[in-house]
Design goal:
With 198 residues, the protein is mainly alpha-helical. The protein has one domain. The protein contains 8 helices and no strands.
């Protein structure tokens, strides 16, 4: 029981999240290089591995942002996991071709942007970048916008997620502020549970 309590109050694993994020980026770049050289099957395999890394990033970010807003953090994780499911099923032709993963990754980035902006333990500029990336991914779904701005949208997405990854990897989070926000969230959760029990 004491171990569970210690784990529940432990600081976020920001640097671990940064490392896993970096592994995702490296694997995704490797997959693009393979696909660019005509090695489609190898590229698909590398993309699957990259998606597994992104699932891990999603779960780590969910845990990190629970103190900010548990419901929104869970909703963001749901969007990301749904997008990852489409990425995993697509090479096997098990996902509907009419559904783009960007339908899910756009809202995911928007929500993560909001959570970063609303947090007290990360710079708000990172939240703004992530929200802009989310809007970009959603705009990418509009054919006229996608054809004109696809490169700019991709660069924005890479910059936003790359900046968050580098910040977590190199600087981490303000642990004291994260603990304060986590304590406030636990206290609020206890307050809302007490009336329902009486």
């Amino acid at each position: 029981m004491m171990k569970w309590i210690a784990a529940a109050s432990s600081p976020p694993r920001a640097r671990l999240t940064g490392v896993v994020y970096l592994l995702y980026f490296l694997t995704a770049i490797f997959a693009e290089v393979l696909a660019g050289h005509g090695l489609v099957v190898s590229g698909d395999a590398a993309n699957l591995i990259a998606t597994v890394w992104y699932i891990a990033v999603t779960l780590l970010l969910y845990d990190m942002f629970k103190p900010v807003n548990k419901s929104l953090s869970l909703l963001a994780a749901f969007f990301s996991l749904a997008g990852c499911a489409i990425l995993i099923l697509s090479p096997f032709h098990l996902a509907p071709s009419s559904i783009s993963p960007l339908f899910f990754f756009g809202p995911y980035c928007l929500l993560i942007g909001y959570l970063v902006f609303d947090s007290t333990f990360l710079p708000r500029a990172l939240g703004v970048l992530m929200a802009l990336a989310g809007l970009g991914w959603l705009a990418f779904l509009l054919p006229p916008v996608a054809s004109r701005l696809s490169s700019a949208i991709e660069v924005l997405g890479i910059i936003a997620e790359g900046a968050l990854m580098l910040w977590l990897l190199v600087i981490g989070v303000n642990v004291q502020r994260w603990k304060e926000q986590a304590s406030a969230a636990r206290a609020q959760s206890r307050k809302t549970r007490v009336p329902s029990q009486s």
